[in-house]
Design goal:
The complex is a heterodimer of chains A (111) and B (112). Chain A contains no helices and 9 strands. Chain A has a 5-stranded mixed β-sheet with strand order 1-9-8-3-4, with no helix packed on it. In chain A, strands 2-7-6-5 form a 4-stranded antiparallel β-sheet, with no helix packed on it. With 111 residues, chain A is mainly β. Classes of the chains: A mainly beta (111), B mainly beta (112). Chains A and B meet through β4 of A and β4, β5, β9 and β10 of B.
Chain lengths: 111, 112
């Protein structure tokens, strides 16, 4: 699976949009971009995934660049409960299905 | 109420003892997984099972064993052969090979 690079931490003001970047310059054509988050001492929570088109669900939006070498997760209106570590993962859907977690971005939403 | 349950939330054991961590799901998912997480680190795959009565080693299987006798259950045994067993253990399940994974609340194991 391709490696991802994320900033180690970022702060966000409550009510504002949070834009979380992820670089995956070695992504291959059949690899998807997944985002999970982990609130302290809990299991990770699936957020969203995409291949090349932008995706949106009730939690977030995922913007993937045209060359697919980077993506941005957008939390449109951050709340204090969005404070968590956010993981960007790139993987093939068929290869044993494991999730390889890197260091992630520690997001702190401040009032 | 559907979901994945892990018990207990906190577990303490003496060094040299085997310990079994429970993972149950009522989501009718075929695939189940065990991950280990150390402080400040990402998750590492221990074992996974795509179907009942079948399982494969992940990246760090040494010192661990699993069984998958029932679809809804995937217990993990941490044996005395595991050199550094103290960690946060997470179980996950997914509907199939190509789907996102849903995680349980985790068990924090401390070996004294």
């Amino acid at each position: 699976d391709a490696k991802t690079t994320q900033p180690p931490s970022m702060d966000c003001a409550e009510g504002r949009a949070a834009n979380l970047p992820c670089n995956h310059s070695t992504i291959s054509g059949n690899e998807y971009v997944y985002w999970y988050r982990q609130i302290h001492s809990q299991g990770p929570q699936y957020i969203i995934h995409g291949l090349k088109n932008n995706e949106t669900n009730e939690m977030a939006s995922l913007i993937i660049t045209e060359d697919r070498k980077s993506s941005t997760l957008i939390l449109p209106h951050a709340t204090l409960r969005d404070t968590a570590v956010y993981y960007c993962i790139v993987r093939i859907k068929a290869a044993g299905n494991k999730l390889t977690f890197g260091g992630g971005t520690r997001v702190l939403v401040k009032p | 109420d559907g979901g994945i349950t892990q018990s207990p939330k906190y577990l303490f054991r003496k060094e040299g003892q085997n310990v079994t961590l429970s993972c149950e799901q009522n989501l009718n998912h075929d695939a189940m997984y065990w991950y280990r997480q150390d402080p400040g680190q990402g998750l590492r795959l221990i074992y996974y099972s795509q179907i009942v009565n079948d399982f494969q080693k992940g990246d760090i299987a040494e010192g661990y064993s699993v069984s998958r006798e029932k679809k809804e259950s995937f217990p993990l045994t941490v044996t005395s052969a595991q050199k550094n067993p103290t960690a946060f253990y997470l179980c996950a399940s997914s509907p199939g090979q190509n789907n996102e994974q849903f995680f349980g609340p985790g068990t924090r194991l401390t070996v004294l």
